[in-house]
Predict the structure of TonB-dependent siderophore receptor.
Amino acid sequence: MVSSKHTVAWPPNWASRRAAAGALCAALGWAVAAPAVLAQPAGTSSGAAALPRFDIPAGPLGPALAAFAGAARINLSFDPALAEGRRTAGLQGAWTVDAGLARLLAGTPLVARRDGANVYTLRLLPQESAALLPAVRVEGADESARGEADGIVARRSAAGTKTDTPILEIPQTVNVVTRDEIAMRGARSVVEALAYTPGVYAPGGSADLRYDNIYLRGGYAARNNLDGARLPYGAYSFGMLQIEPYGLERIEVLKGPSSVLYGQNTPGGLINMVSKLPTQTPRREIELQTGSYGRAQAAFDLGGPVDEAGQWSYRLVALERDAAQSAHYSEEDRTFVAPALTWRPSAATSLTLLGFYQKDHQVPLYGNLPAAGTLYSNPNGRIPRDRFAGEPGWDAYDREQYSAGYLFSHQFNDTWTVKQQLRYSHMRGEARTTVGYLLDPVDMRTWSRTMARGQGTGTTLSVDTQAVARFRTGAVGHEFLAGFDYLDMRDTYKFANVIAGVPPLDLYDPVYGRPRPGVRDLIPRIDAVQRTEQSGVYAQDQISYGNWLLTLGGRYDMARSTTRNQLTSGKVAQSDSAFTGRAGLTYVLENGLAPYVAYSTSFAPTGGTDYESNPFQPSKGRQIEAGLKYQPPGSDSMVTLSAYQLTQTNVLTSDTTPGRPPGFQAQTGETRARGIELEGKAGLARGWDLIASYSYVDAVVTKSANVDVIDGAPQSREGKKQFYAPAHQAAAWLAYKVQDGPLQGLGLGAGVRYIGADWGDAANTLRIPSVTLVDAALSYDLGQMRPELRGVSLALNASNLFDRTYVGTCVTATACTYGAGRLVLATLKYAW
């Protein structure tokens, strides 16, 4: 064996790393085990704030490997005979060590084995192994912010900076749920995928499958983005798209004010979903699923290069589902297809065309029930959880949605890169409901109802153009981002209902199908058309100096909206502008610890006028956040601990000025949320995976003119708790896959979720009790049993395993909903 070694001048002190890791794990109260093999992680700052850069021309493999080892400052050992007669396409630009080696060795039967910290050995795969085994991925080798993450731990994200940045270096909390985690837990929706993420709350749990309504950090509704582009969010929460999670590579939660990058937004944060994109390596997967209530689902995910040169690659994801939520009348059907095509004419240029089409038909189990019999006792007993309070043949929710756009990137040189993304999204939907509004106070079982129909559309066109410059001024590194984005959002909504003639329902002995009003009997109540335009210019600089990282950003937005009342021919126009910013400081230690502190602001236009017809000013948010992130170099783990104080001003409250009639509002309100969030994810040794999270929030109304009459006495809302903000939430998931022996390939997983008590209304009169739920998973890789079944796997997932009955939320005493009961899914998958 001939050794070609390149000695590094900075061997990591592993003993000190272990000491620091032990101290942190003890402080956080759990164990995060790091594997024994380590490598410098991509993008960490330990005097190497930027990735190593390479300029290795195409040619013989041996000299190229020697040049690589010298530039990367690693020990690379190999027999020169392995490289003899082999060539490489070369390597240019900034790469991680693992990704660079993989690129140099592409097209050869050689792989690099990591033997220790910055120590690698080249070896030859046996011919039969090379033919049968998929490519072995080194941990974190080629992860990008828009790409697949290997396992449950993501290392990079673009949600917090709009650049491909290590999460460790982002001075803001970013939680990521990867594709592997979505599949491992069998999540049916984005809400279910985020069930183990700290500080994320979905009223009613996953009982309402029509929308992904998520609240962050103190009861602030999160806005949804897809690949960084804003999705429709109607004025009446009707024009919302729901994204099929099977078509997603990851789901990212950006906590706190984020207007500096995305414009108008609530101060709690946003959800960014990342689509499955074309891949350079072939990917083929077929999935069949069945489960509770006759569920039948088929899906496939195909992708890979189109031509031998690799200039063209594709991805095609599709799903068809016929399902229900209960044994009584509910339906949950979906058709989904998402094509994508990437063209790479050169290493510097990339254009991806992508889109999706989705059609949903649902008869939701979600419906209003009275508090008496759900939240409170009823002399007739508890109302059954699967009681259908609507009217079969009338109640339904239908939605058709589609989206199309492109992602473009061109690197002019080592300094400048230009990017642009465009997305057009549209949905139209109709909801027909039979909603209860009064429980008979005598028999406590007769439920008076109204028939209603809502029809609406939601459309967005967004364009975001960016220029990124990476350069150095002496010892200071810069990643400078400047951009301009434009958003055109249109929303229509019609609502009509009728009370007279609607038959009441006995909630304990229901009889359906009685004579009821027809569509022509519905009385129009709302017919609104709204258009909102936003344009913003922003700049950001990620400045690195040694181990210090300073992130500075600023943005100026102009927003205008017009709302037309088609019933009265009234029109309200409003224009707003605002400056928002962020400043964050991070210090990245060599052992993977990264303390940070940040300040950020946000704004959101507020529609309407006050008593004197003055347009309302935008509500504004500001947050101070401090935290600690920990990612041991070379490990498959990430721990994030953050503390924050978030304040929202210009909140609408009742106008109580003497002499003015009731019904008007003023911007005299203020809310404040203080909390801590803790999340740990780790791919542990020998097949173990761990997810753990905890959040605490104290969210209160600090200023308000609103007064509620409770027990006959007026009470101010000042000091009241925010609703949709449980003080405590916690979750933990532990999974194990047998590595050897007769049970090799068997996977086991179990999780527990605690959702603390919450208030269902602003007056704090409806107390929603806490609940603890248990989930479980079982899987088996059939290829471990028989070689001809390689790629075939079975999975069994159960949510709310013990079928716990609980109240998800109550908005009023006549509008309560149960959380989802036990659901069992069985999935057969073949990947090759």
